[in-house]
Specification:
49% of the residues lie in helices and 16% in strands. It contains ten helices and seven strands. A hairpin with a 6-residue loop joins strand 2 and strand 3 (104-106). It is globular, with a radius of gyration of 17 Å.
Length: 216
C-alpha cells in the first residue's frame, strides 16, 4: 500500500483529518485570494471567476458543503481555477482550530485528474477511491476524459454519489447534457443537486490564444 500513499501525497496531497465538520477558515484571505485568472472582458470567463470566488468564500465562512462544476470547451481555464481553489484549501482551510478543545486539526483533500484515478484503479490501487470519495475537499479534474467503459462510469457514479454533502470542484469538457448522453444521466442530475453550482456551456477561445491577442 506504500505506492498508494505516495500517489496520494503527490496527486491528492492529503492531510490527516478527524472529521468533515465545517469550521470557518480565513474569510479575509478568501476575499483577497488571487486566482491569477484573466477574464479579458468575456462574460463566461467572468462567470467562472465569480463562481470560484463564491466557492472559496462559502468554504471560508463554513456554509454547508457543495460542489462547483466547470463544464465546456478545453483551454478555457477550468483546470486553472480548480487548481487555484485547491491552493486556497491547502493554504487557508486544510488546518483549523477545533472550537471546544482548541486543538489544531487537519482536513484531507487536494487535486487529482479523473484519468489518473482510473489508471490507478486498473493497476489495482484501490485505496485511491477511498480518498477521492471521502476527503474533506476534492478537485476532480477532467471527468469523462478517459475512454468511457462500464468500469469507469460505475466508478465515477460511486464517487459522485459518495461526495454528496462534501466540498468538491469538478471539471469536464462535456456539457451537462453531454454527460447525460455519454456517461450517465444520474451523474448529470447529481451535479446540479441542492446548492451545487454549475458553470455550463463554456465555449471561449483557448487561453494561449487569448493571451497572444492581449500581448498583440
Amino acid at each position: 500500500m506504500q505506492h498508494v500513499r505516495d500517489l496520494l501525497d503527490q496527486e491528492i496531497e492529503t492531510l490527516a483529518t478527524r472529521t468533515n465538520t465545517v469550521i470557518s477558515a480565513n474569510t479575509a484571505a478568501a476575499s483577497e485570494w488571487d486566482f491569477e485568472f484573466q477574464t479579458f472582458g468575456e462574460a463566461k470567463l467572468s462567470e467562472m471567476l465569480g463562481a470560484a470566488k463564491d466557492f472559496i468564500r462559502d468554504m471560508a465562512i463554513g456554509t454547508a458543503p457543495r460542489w462547483l462544476s466547470f463544464m465546456g470547451r478545453s483551454g478555457a481555464g477550468k483546470t486553472h481555477l480548480a487548481r487555484s481553489i485547491t491552493r486556497f484549501f491547502k493554504s487557508e482551510a486544510a488546518i483549523y482550530v477545533e472550537p471546544v478543545t482548541g486543538a489544531h486539526l487537519g482536513r484531507r483533500g487536494g487535486f487529482i485528474g479523473w484519468r489518473k484515478v482510473i489508471d490507478r484503479l486498473r493497476d489495482g490501487d484501490y485505496g485511491i477511491i477511498d480518498a477521492v470519495c471521502n476527503d474533506w475537499f476534492v478537485a476532480l479534474d477532467d471527468i469523462g476524459a478517459e475512454r468511457a467503459s462500464d468500469f469507469s462510469v460505475s466508478k465515477l457514479d460511486q464517487v459522485i454519489d459518495a461526495r454528496l454533502g462534501k466540498w468538491a470542484v469538478i471539471t469536464c469538457n462535456f456539457s451537462r447534457e453531454e454527460i447525460a448522453e455519454h456517461l450517465d444521466v444520474r451523474i448529470a442530475s447529481r451535479l446540479g443537486r441542492g446548492n451545487n453550482v454549475i458553470v455550463d456551456g463554456i465555449c471561449v477561445r483557448d487561453y494561449s490564444t487569448r493571451c497572444q491577442k492581449e500581448v498583440a
